[in-house]
Amino acid sequence: MNSTVTAVSSNGVYAFTKPNRESITLLAGLGVEGDVHAGVTVKHRSRIAQDPTQPNLRQVHLIHEELFAELRGAGFDVSPGELGENVTTGGIDLLALPVGTLLHLGDEAVVAVTGLRNPCLQIDNFQDGLLKQVVGRDGTGAVVRKADVMGVVVAGGTVRPGDPVTAELPAEPHRPLERV
Length: 180
Description:
It is a single chain. By secondary structure, the chain is an alpha+beta fold. It is 13% helix and 31% strand. The protein is built from 4 helices and 13 strands. Strands 2-1-6-5-11-8-7-13 form an 8-stranded mixed sheet. The protein has a 3-stranded antiparallel sheet with strand order 4-3-12, with no helix packed on it. It has a two-stranded antiparallel sheet with strand order 9-10. The longest helix is centred in the middle third of the chain and has 8 residues, at 66-73.
């Protein structure tokens, strides 16, 4: 199956959702040009409160559009950008990728996967009960996060819907994704 970018989104102000765009520009070491979460150090309010000097491992949010179909099956209506992601993909299992995977988006942009987003209660403010759909527990009781993955921009470039997505795995041993 071919993996593609199905939507791109950004927002210059703090808001839960991000409007879809015709394109976004990724800037190496910073994130999405004009997005409130772009920067070398953390930009998420909860992270700033903890330590504003932390490196920003959450420059780009990526989510797989297949999650939206799963959520529709559970009675929720969620579209690209509404969970705050910058890049919506189709045909690639983002959650199965190891830390350090390089995602090539289009002809130039490259994002290194850093970990999993830890969804917060804002998701329930968006749609009541949605948090339980994107964070749960497996048979052993371990927390399972499926809202999206986070990354940092290694190489900049313009990203548009329809662009191909290819994954370049890091050298083994692979480290599974954890919350960042």
